[in-house]
């Protein structure tokens, strides 16, 4: 009987993608995936270190897994991802039930770690992607593809430059091959992933360095691919050609995750973001001029050290000005080893909570208004799978809204035209048009 692997991803989409790749590596070793840790011979937690809460979650999960292991001592437990990179061997000190620790740049050495145990948080001398089996065949029409990893920006609050290392872009030819292989498996939508994806500068087949815009253009020539997206971007890497790609590439979806973090120039400076609020707003104007129906999404941090009420007000102002289609907001979490940790005046927890709820109310109102504005429109929906009700299918709008409508399963993987009739807080519903 095949051995079983339970893998759980925390945090960002790259972790979800990496978890799939790791499952691919272990499938080659005879492991089948299970969604029940109780059935597993091997449990892998792909962890996130971005905020303290995310990192702490891992230890409570490990506590639960230890109980499983007490009952079944041959169960193997591995910790992967950014907590693995940041804490290394400390993890095993804190939770001795952990058999191995594997950092994001060492996933291709997973089989050896599963066999021998230990800690591997080395940064690469070789291309781990070349050494990893492709992710297992997927049924969903959407897939991720990592094109770039790491970050050289060093925002003062962020662990990413330390956990994921310096920016590395993968060669374009290999990405085009992988995208073609995904299309051959029935994938219709590819989201290009990178911690700083719009800083992509991979070697092109022509010997020149390609920008993300050039890569998107090449990928949009793949016939089976209907939709392209990319995430996450930094405002300072939003090149002219990428803005133009939003005007010129029909397959590039009108949705852009472009975090600003704060609306206050003083805080932006302290965060080492290297741009002002005004520069960000002018950039958005240019992007909207290129693609008027684009929806913006963002990330915000409230309560960064030294943030005053006036600084926070500037963050609300930027939301007012941009009207995000969706946005994520977080309380500042001091991360060991980052420049902002211990620097400046910490904002009290209750002040952070209060600002967060005001910001979230503002964001939710805009999100809802955007969603409601879809009613009566006919939207192209990439059909994913059966909906909750019998005879229903669910898919995604160009702006990532879930859309429910009556249709048969034969529509899965197609782009259907759906007339939107109703807008609920978390989804849209409609009927097949025409
Ligand atoms: N505290 C709170 N939020 C953070 N983020 C990154 N680091 C921190 C931190 N120390 C947020 C940023 C980033 C998103 C992925 O997580 O908004 O864009
Ligand atoms: Fe972190 Fe800033 Fe890099 Fe984003 S751009 S990963 S927030 S350091």
Automatic annotation (TrEMBL):
Keywords: 4Fe-4S, Cytoplasm, Iron, Iron-sulfur, Metal-binding, S-adenosyl-L-methionine, Transferase, tRNA processing. [4Fe-4S] cluster 2 binds at residues 151, 155, 158. It catalyses: N(6)-dimethylallyladenosine(37) in tRNA + (sulfur carrier)-SH + AH2 + S-adenosyl-L-methionine = 2-thio-N(6)-dimethylallyladenosine(37) in tRNA + (sulfur carrier)-H + 5'-deoxyadenosine + L-methionine + A + H(+); 2-thio-N(6)-dimethylallyladenosine(37) in tRNA + S-adenosyl-L-methionine = 2-methylsulfanyl-N(6)-dimethylallyladenosine(37) in tRNA + S-adenosyl-L-homocysteine + H(+); N(6)-dimethylallyladenosine(37) in tRNA + (sulfur carrier)-SH + AH2 + 2 S-adenosyl-L-methionine = 2-methylsulfanyl-N(6)-dimethylallyladenosine(37) in tRNA + (sulfur carrier)-H + 5'-deoxyadenosine + L-methionine + A + S-adenosyl-L-homocysteine + 2 H(+). One of its GO terms (molecular function) is 4 iron, 4 sulfur cluster binding. Residues 372-434 form the TRAM domain. Residues 3-119 form the MTTase N-terminal domain. One of its GO terms (cellular component) is cytosol. Binds 2 [4Fe-4S] clusters. One cluster is coordinated with 3 cysteines and an exchangeable S-adenosyl-L-methionine. It is found in: Cytoplasm. Residues 137-369 form the Radical SAM core domain. Catalyzes the methylthiolation of N6-(dimethylallyl)adenosine (i(6)A), leading to the formation of 2-methylthio-N6-(dimethylallyl)adenosine (ms(2)i(6)A) at position 37 in tRNAs that read codons beginning with uridine. Monomer. PANTHER family: CDK5 REGULATORY SUBUNIT-ASSOCIATED PROTEIN 1 (PTHR43020), MITOCHONDRIAL TRNA METHYLTHIOTRANSFERASE CDK5RAP1 (PTHR43020:SF2). Belongs to the methylthiotransferase family. MiaB subfamily. NCBIfam families: miaB-methiolase, MiaB/RimO family radical SAM methylthiotransferase. This is tRNA-2-methylthio-N(6)-dimethylallyladenosine synthase. It comes from Albimonas donghaensis. The gene is miaB.
């Amino acid at each position: 009987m095949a051995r079983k692997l339970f893998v759980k991803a925390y945090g960002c989409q790259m972790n979800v993608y990496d978890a799939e790749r790791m499952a691919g590596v272990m499938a080659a070793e005879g492991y089948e995936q299970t969604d029940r840790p109780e059935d597993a011979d091997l449990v892998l937690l792909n962890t996130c270190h971005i905020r303290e809460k995310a990192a702490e979650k891992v230890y409570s999960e490990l506590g639960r897994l230890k109980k499983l292991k007490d009952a079944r001592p041959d169960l193997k437990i591995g910790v992967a991802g950014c907590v693995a990179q940041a804490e290394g061997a400390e993890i095993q000190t804190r939770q001795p039930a952990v058999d191995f620790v594997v950092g994001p740049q060492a996933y291709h050495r997973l089989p050896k770690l599963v066999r021998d145990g230990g800690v591997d948080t080395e940064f690469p001398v070789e291309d781990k992607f070349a050494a990893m089996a492709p992710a297992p065949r997927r049924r969903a029409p959407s897939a991720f593809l990592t094109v770039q990893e790491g970050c050289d920006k060093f925002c003062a609050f962020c662990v990413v430059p330390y956990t994921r290392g310096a920016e590395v872009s993968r060669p374009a030819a290999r990405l085009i091959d992988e995208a073609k292989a995904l299309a051959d498996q029935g994938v219709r939508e590819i989201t290009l992933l990178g911690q700083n994806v719009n800083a992509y500068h991979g070697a092109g087949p022509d010997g020149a360095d390609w920008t993300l815009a050039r890569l998107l253009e090449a990928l949009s020539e793949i016939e089976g691919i209907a939709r392209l997206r990319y995430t996450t971007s930094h405002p300072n890497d939003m090149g002219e050609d990428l803005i133009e790609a939003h005007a010129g590439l029909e397959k590039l979806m009108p949705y852009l995750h472009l975090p600003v973090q704060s609306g206050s120039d003083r805080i932006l400076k302290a965060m080492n973001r290297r741009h002002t609020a005004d520069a960000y707003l002018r950039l958005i104007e240019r992007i909207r001029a290129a693609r008027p129906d684009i929806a913006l999404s963002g990330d915000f941090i409230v309560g960064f050290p030294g943030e005053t009420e006036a600084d926070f007000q500037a963050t609300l102002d930027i939301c007012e000005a941009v009207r995000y289609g969706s946005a994520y907001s977080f309380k500042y979490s001091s991360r060991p080893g980052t420049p902002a940790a211990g620097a400046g005046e910490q904002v009290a927890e209750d002040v952070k909570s209060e600002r967060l709820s005001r910001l979230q109310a503002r964001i939710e109102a805009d999100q809802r208004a955007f969603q409601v504005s879809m009613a009566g429109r006919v939207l192209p929906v990439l059909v994913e799978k059966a909906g909750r009700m019998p005879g229903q299918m669910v898919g995604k709008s160009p702006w990532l809204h879930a859309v429910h409508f009556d249709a048969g399963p034969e529509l899965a993987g197609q782009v259907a035209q759906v007339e939107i009739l109703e807008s609920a807080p978390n989804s849209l519903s409609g009927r097949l048009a025409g």
